[in-house]
Write a structure and sequence with these properties.
Elements lengths: L23 H19 L3 E2 L5 E3 H8 L4 H6 L2 E3 L5 E4 L4 H10 L8 E10 L11 E10 L4 H17 L6 E7 L3 H16 L7 H9 L13 H5 L10 H17 L4 E2 L11 E9 L6 E8 L3 H4 L7 E7 H7 L10 E5 L2 H16 L4 E3 L5 H10 L4 E5 L1 H6 L1 E6 L5 E5 L3 H11 L18
Parallel strand pairs: 1-5, 7-8, 12-13, 12-14
Antiparallel strand pairs: 2-4, 3-4, 5-6, 6-11, 7-9, 9-10, 10-11, 14-15, 15-16
Helix pairs in contact: 1-5, 1-11, 5-9
Length: 442
């Protein structure tokens, strides 16, 4: 009598638009984050953390009720207390909320930076996911154009440190001050109303609430109308011209190349003055790898005091795709114990190696040949072989896996032997390694 076979259990699949990372891309991702953390410290930006979830009103107010992000893309739900909660689709609104509710005004001007996951219900495509990750940097509480310039110099240095500045262009525009923007908006509405019958449905919907967004419409039907719209330059006040001039002068002084893009806009009314994007065509169609602008009206829109602010964000996945990857070994030393007594000594030796700042590992099982094969596979520079003979003599057999030489080294001399050997190979402790070679271009 045969037994019934158990029903096959269906394996849960990942949520569409999310990704698991292992190996090379995970290393690229970590390298982007590590480089960002190192560079932001050079510029005096403090690390902050804000919640992944916020009241929906934080994003509805900051992103605008009529934007696609709020109306179509946010992951919002009602929690058990009946409150509408949203997974953050961007960082700036949550940081602005924290600035108000956390009493951060006392620290202004405040330079902060963070990174982590964000969520938008978008159509997944290359470099874009429903759970994605960004770097974010903000200067809150300063109305100086030098803050804008410093943020842009910070971004430029980050891209250079990542080795991806080649083929990336900083495009820059001014949205003017409130008076400039209001006058320009009135002129744009008049222009678009004159072509109302020829606009796309999306642009017609934007005409009343968000007319500036029509300028960057991708619909071919809108392009001739948008291209013939008036530029902001005719409406800039003297103060707005001076502000933009100070920003560009700061960039020139710091040696940061830039191009003017008079069609680069931010649709929401709280944006002022500087708007910018670092763009590249190295991912196929031209795309933005880092962008931002000045948002002097946001904190007031969230119920806080009038507060000047400027910031930028960059997609970690996109940056990781651009990094010219050259893997370097992540392990300095592999310990190869043979026998129970050697394994016990190896555990103690591993602890010492790691406390000395060396990246050390040990295979848990296998014969000598298999363990040495694994040591070579992870790119280790040295293998420390321990057996009964070595223990009896108080030495370790240290094999240089690069040139094949092997020496018996007393236990109290292992640190000096390895440090000297790694130095001759041009490899310092793991904490000092550069895991990626800069992108040199062609």
């Amino acid at each position: 009598m045969s037994k019934d076979k158990p029903a096959k259990i269906a394996t849960p699949q990942p949520v569409r638009g999310t990704q698991d990372m292992l190996g090379e891309f995970a290393d690229r991702f970590a390298h982007v984050v590590d480089t960002f953390d190192r560079v932001r410290r050079l510029y005096g930006f403090k690390r902050v953390e804000v919640p992944v979830i916020e009241p929906t009103a934080v994003f509805a107010r900051s992103l605008g009720e009529t934007t696609d992000v709020v109306s179509k893309e946010m992951y919002s739900f009602e929690d058990r207390g009946g409150e509408s909660i949203t997974l953050r689709p961007e960082f700036t609104a949550g940081i602005a909320r924290a600035y108000i509710t956390g009493g951060w005004q006392q620290f202004a001007p405040l330079k902060v930076a963070t990174h982590g996951p964000l969520f938008r219900y978008e159509r997944p495509q290359k470099g874009r996911y429903r759970q994605f990750h960004q770097l974010d940097a903000e200067v809150i509480g300063s109305d100086s154009p030098l803050a804008d310039a410093e943020l842009l110099v910070f971004a430029d240095q980050l891209l250079k440190e990542l080795g991806i500045a080649e083929g990336v262009t900083l495009t820059l525009n001014t949205l003017g001050d409130a008076a400039s923007r209001d006058a320009w908006r009135t002129a744009l509405v008049e222009h678009f109303m004159g072509h109302r019958g020829d606009l796309s449905e999306d642009s017609l919907a934007r005409l009343d609430k968000n007319p500036l967004r029509i300028l960057d419409s991708k619909d071919p039907k809108d392009r001739p109308i948008a291209d013939s719209a008036p530029d902001i330059d005719a409406f800039l006040t003297g103060e707005a011209q001076d502000f933009f001039g100070a920003v560009t002068a700061g960039l020139d002084a710091a040696g940061v190349a830039w191009e003017r893009n008079a069609r680069l806009v931010r649709g929401l009314d709280y944006y002022r003055h500087t708007a910018f994007e670092f763009v590249t065509d190295r991912l196929g169609a031209q795309g933005t790898v880092l962008g931002g602008g000045r948002y002097d009206g946001l904190i007031e829109a969230l119920g806080g005091p009038p507060t000047a602010a400027v910031g930028w964000a960059a997609g970690i996945e996109r940056l990781a795709m651009l990094v010219d990857f050259e893997p370097r070994p992540a392990t300095d030393v592999v310990v190869v114990p043979m026998g129970a007594a050697a394994e016990q000594r190896a555990v103690a030796l591993l602890a010492d190696l790691r406390q000395w700042g060396l990246a050390a590992d040990m295979g848990y099982s296998g014969n000598m040949k298999k363990r040495m094969t694994r040591a070579n596979a992870v790119g280790a520079a040295f293998a420390i072989i321990l057996g009964d003979d070595e223990l009896a003599q108080g030495v370790a057999a240290i094999k240089n896996l690069i040139d094949g030489n092997q020496d018996n080294v007393p236990f109290d001399a292992i640190s000096d032997h390895l440090t000297d050997g790694l130095s001759r190979l041009g490899r310092g402790p793991l904490g000092g390694w550069t895991l990626f070679a800069p992108y040199k271009g062609e």
